Amino acid sequence: MNLDDELRAALRREDPSPGFAQRAVARAKSNPEPTMAIPIFQPVRISQMIWAAALAAMLVIGLTATSEYRQRKAERAGRDAVLALRITAEKLNMTRDKVLKREEN
Amino acid sequence: MFTQAAAIQETTSDTMTDDAEQFADLVKEHQAMVFSMACRYLRNRALAEEIAQDVFLQLYRKLPTLESPDHVLHWLRWVTAHRLIDHSRQEKRRPQSPLEDVPEPAAAPDPTERADPLLSNMLRDLVAALPENARVVMILRYQEDLDPMDIARALDMPIATVKSHLQRSLATLREKLSHKKGVGV
What we know:
heterodimer, A: about 100 residues, mainly alpha, B: about 180 residues, Rna Polymerase Sigma Factor, Chain: A, 2 domains, 8 helices
């Protein structure tokens, strides 16, 4: 026989001990619902929790920085608008003065 | 008197009996596959039975969501394979005493077996010593007689990876057999 056939013979299916099916059915009937005890503190879950916390922290920091940047930008735009209005008002006053002087002359 | 409550109770009881009977039939149909996969993977009959029992308990809970016999078969292969891989990874993390490393004696050789029982036993040991994923691939290939495409589907693994596991595992087995026993296969 070649290796393929030898492997098929070596790894052929085998029955479990007698009564296996009855034990499986009895166990299923006596324990039908999944147990609620979730192993939260397994090593994998702890590392997942650390990653999740780091991600949440980065998200919060990012959102805070973005909102502060937007607030500063709005304040600067407000100051620029006030300055522009003042300049316009001064120019209008100067123009009005010139018009009044011409009318007097 | 035949009340509505009695009718509901009878229906529920009938459904439960039907479910249990259906489940018992499924266990009988697939027990050899699940147990053998575990047994070949672990080389420990008691542990293999324990894991097979866990897989069938999981099947019982999952049964309402499985749509067809093919779905059940695929699900069982997938869950058994991943359960075995998880188990051996957990065992690697856990410190073990030397006694636990000793595999249980294999079942008595089948007198009707045509293959050399010593070679079969050696092959089972060599397969059980392969890395986790390669071991499952070899078991599905030679125990379940699945082709690489079906193995890839059963394990959610790229087909190239399956082929590579098969080639490397066969090369390793050939090399170890020729070194150890001078067996020309």
